[in-house]
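Usage

Read records sequentially. Each one opens with the input sequence:
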Amino acid sequence: PAFAKFLEVAAFSNGEVVNFTNIARECGVSGPTAKEYFQILVDTLLARFVPSFQKKPKRRGIQAPKFYLFDVGIANALLKRGTIVEGNEIFGRAFEQFIFQEVVAHSHYSGLEYPISYWRTASGFEVDFVLGSGEVALEVKGVAEVQSHHLRSVYAFRQEYKPKKTIVVSLDAKPRNIAGINVMPWEIFIRDLWTNLIIK
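and closes with the structure output:
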């Protein structure tokens, strides 16, 4: 019963920074047990952790890992979600996980095996994914048109780490460049990812 409850709580944590203490409390188990439950999901390839980006931070960063179930459909089933409609928060989170799954698959099947991490500061800046040792900063926005206010975090990351590429993947109709940041429709991003144009 405790593990069944944990699966539901873990699904709510999908795509989020993990707070083991809070999850243990919700499940009625100890902190070490909650960590062991997460490890079972990782060991059975049902989930993975995404570590925080640690390269010489100037700003104080969040250290805890983010957690993703291996497929967005599993999260939807555990949370008993119905149809996911474009434009709401649930869609945004599902879209982010979809892009994450493509990046994970590419890292493995391309043979590049580049690290995938995320960046979040205590002041609230966050970049969804950092590829390699900081070569690519990748933000995912489930919106039809990226606006300047969507770019604050990637600007902050670019200023601090000088990545080779800064990309925002979205539902935009066509690619464009905003002050050196590439806004890419998701179809084009995936095409370029799998032809090794995003990272080599």
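Summary fields computed downstream for this record:
- The two ends are 45 Å apart (CA to CA).
- The chain has a mean pLDDT of 91.
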